[in-house]
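In the current project phase, the collection of sequences with tokenised folds has grown. A sample record is quoted in full directly below:
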Amino acid sequence: MEKLKILTAIDGSEYSSQIVNKAVELAKVLDGGIILVHCHRKFSAIMEHAYREDEMSQIISDAEKLVRPFLQAIEAAGIGVDSRIMEEPAGAAISNIAAAEKCGLIVMGCRGHTNLANLIIGSVTNRVLQTAPCSVLVVR
């Protein structure tokens, strides 16, 4: 039987540590592995080629620095981990990766948008809840 894959989405906010801790706890109990996902901001589309390359390199470097301590913590806990650094929009990327990797669970946080903002723009969490191919655990 294949190990449970737990997609764990982080954004670098103060809740990211709680999200990773919960995913590690679940991976231990369920004998699963973690796919750590971070979606960086979009690359600029209207920029001269040389500047765009510099911007892309900086965004990717920043994303790798953000993810590194979480990867190390997961590895230190003895859990198998892989990572994906993707471009926004995060809601679509998280659901797409979960489907492609055949994840059994998504662990992510909930951000505090007002109800009006959720009606107008939606949140990443709401998008994932609507489109995920598997169960979603929202960590508060």
Q: What stands out?
A: Residues 33 and 80 are 5 Å apart (CA to CA). Residues 4-139 form a domain with the Rossmann fold fold (CATH 3.40.50.620). The mean pLDDT is 89.
